[in-house]
Design brief:
Length: 223
């Protein structure tokens, strides 16, 4: 099963893909995570994208398409994947189709998480994650079970993203509405788009996504 989780910054793509990864054994391919890893390693790619990301702009299609193509060719992607943060432009959506065709793979569903801007701002403002394993949390909506200790790995170190500050968030939302949302009609025409109410709480959204997958009858039971 190959999925795209589509939606604006803060919609819950990362949170829901963590669940899908754990529950169905899908591989999470998050382009934002890949870019942040490149930035913190100081690689040539990281140096190239650092300022663009800090400003809340989109990295160029050429860079992103190359990056994803290299990743999707690795053997583990054959187990089924969840794309989080890609595609973000129509050019990326079209390139994704071409690369899947080349690899004899296909998209089963594009799941759109619909959330309004006011709620996105609230979510992003309270977002933090484990510095060691990347598990995602929120100051109000998803606190660790024991304060200050990661549920997943027990680490006591947490980080907040540099681009989650208010000035940059406005720019990122604008990029979403202008450049990313226009891919929705493309997927709608292809009959793979399913929209889910992302305003609901985390468990309810997870439940809705599972219903979608079940309805698709493509659910791959794990274990
Ligand atoms: P969020 O989950 O908040 O939407 P991401 O982690 O997906 O944010 O992305 C962080 C930043 O990385 C983006 O603001 C953008 O600069 C860059 N980025 C990630 N994926 C892409 C992509 N597919 N195309 C262009 N830029 C991207
Ligand atoms: P994205 O990957 O789409 O940018 P995240 O999954 O990182 O979004 O979620 C943004 C923030 O909102 C995180 O702090 C997360 O814990 C929280 N969050 C995610 N989904 C929900 C939800 N349905 N209700 C409340 N908070 C949520
Ligand atoms: Zn952790």
């Amino acid at each position: 099963m190959n999925l795209v989780l589509f939606g604006p910054p803060g919609a819950g793509k990362g949170t829901q893909s963590e669940f899908l990864q754990a529950k169905f054994g899908l591989v999470k391919l998050a382009t934002g995570d890949m870019l942040r890893a490149a930035v913190s390693s100081g690689s040539p790619l990281g140096r190239q994208v650092q300022d663009i990301m800090a400003k809340g702009h989109l990295v160029s299609d050429i860079i992103m398409i190359n990056l994803l193509q290299q990743r999707i060719r690795l053997p583990d992607a054959r187990r089924g994947f969840i794309l989080d943060g890609f595609p973000r432009t129509l050019a990326q959506a079209e390139a994704l189709d071409r690369m899947l065709e080349d690899e004899a793979m296909r998209l089963d569903a594009v799941i759109e998480l619909k959330v309004d801007d006011a709620k996105l701002i609230e979510r992003i403002a309270g977002r933090f994650s484990c510095a060691k394993c990347g598990a995602g949390y929120h100051d109000s909506f998803r606190q660790p079970k024991m304060a200050g200790i990661c549920d997943v790995c027990g680490s006591k170190e947490f980080i907040r993203r540099e681009d989650d500050k208010a000035e940059t968030v406005a720019q990122r939302l604008q990029a979403y509405h202008k450049k990313t949302a226009p891919s929705l009609p493309y997927y709608k025409r292809r009959g793979v788009l399913v929209s889910v109410d992302g305003m609901a709480d985390i468990d309810e959204v997870a439940h809705q996504i599972e219903e979608v997958l079940r309805a698709n009858k493509k659910i791959a039971k794990k274990g």
